[in-house]
Amino acid sequence: MTTASKVAPGLRDGISPEEWAARVDLAAAYRLVALYGWDDLIFTHLSARVPGPEHHFLINDYQNMFEEMTASNLIKIDLDGNKVDDVPGMVNSAGFIIHSALHMAREDANAVIHLHTPHGQAVSAMKEGLTPHTQTAMIAHHGVAYHDHEGIATELGERERIVADMSDKGALILRNHGTLTVGNTVAEAFLRMYFLERACQAQVLMLAAGRDGLNEPPEGVPDIVKGQTQAPVMRMAADYLAWPALLRKLDRIDPSYRN
User: Which value, to the nearest 10 degrees, does the dihedral of the CA atoms of residues 15, 19, 21, 27 take?
Assistant: First the structure.
């Protein structure tokens, strides 16, 4: 069955401009995850809160590859995991548990990205977690929290532990599992994930050469970088610089995510 055949006829007619904009950004993020090779077949998930008082959020149809995602074939669900609209498709239960936890608990978590990349998983299995040995890691490091693995996330009770472990951080390394970021916008969550994933990739490559030759950054430098990359700076870089450029990139490759 093609992606187009799963789209509910006339779905856009009843959608507010604000929700449609959120759908386009989230579909773009799915396409970018596929483009950068961060997808894991159909087995990870990205979500975005729908503007409005209902606390609904958008997530992928579990049957679609990330390269197939469009604004129309995202599924809108409530905080109990029920589909709001009568549309085809199904929702990954683990995706619901993880994403609903953060959308419920944090007003700033308008977007949530969760991945299982090889580099992210590798760092998630290291006792020390992410280390601030590269500039990219310094950007990500101060905003990272950790959550111990409890098995595939299918138990509602894990939601409060995810929220407690993440606290007010913008990124979470799920031990022995993968990576997660949140943002006020899809753009912010994506840029956070970009830095986190690049930092994990560099750490895996760095440690492959052995620990003995590692150069420790000068004392105080990670704190300087932390001060230079606080949330307002990240938000501006994401929303006004990186994200518009990324959308232009997608539009050149395949603009069908906007449908």
Answer: -100
